[in-house]
Amino acid sequence: MAIDTTVFVRERTGLAAYLDWLQALTGTGLILFMWSHMVLVASVNLGAGAMNTIARFFEDTYMAQVGGPLIGITFLLHFVLAARKVPFRSEQQSVIWKHGRLLRHTDTWLWLVQVVTAMIILIMGSIHMWTVLTDLPITAAKSAARVQGGFWLVFYLILLPMVELHVGIGFYRIGVKWGFIKRKDRKGMKRFENILTAIFIAIGLITIVRFLTLTI
Prior knowledge:
mainly alpha, 81% helix
């Protein structure tokens, strides 16, 4: 007896579309969070008091205590959703790299950069979140002490560009995938994304230098 697989295929397709939307939504939320987080941490450049005041507001309203774990859950959920399309097996990775070199397609390479940075961020981002959330309240002095400790300086100098590259490329790729960025606009948006990424990396480096020179 023949088995009608139409319904099954339609259900699988519908589920995949739903998961893709969820991946895009969690990705968008994390992009907005990371840009906001960078600006808020950079408030230390206006003085330790400015950063401490903002941090105290988030803690007094329990946004840090509640929002921190929620961001962590969103972070892990987004990784799980994105991992559906990540080539973990060595033979799959070999095929992807060969196709990337063969096609010479910029968007393909951008996706590969996202995959590599995602793996690094999964480990380093989890360490950063755990360290901060288990040592509340957040203060400029604590952040400066970590950066001045040596290990954390190297840690953040690696994590900073990884995050900003991942976030910037993600911003561009979400727009392309869901039709917000048209084909004729891709070149201009790539340039905008590169400038935006460079700006946030520069802000991050300036902030790290400020922590290094902050008197504890």
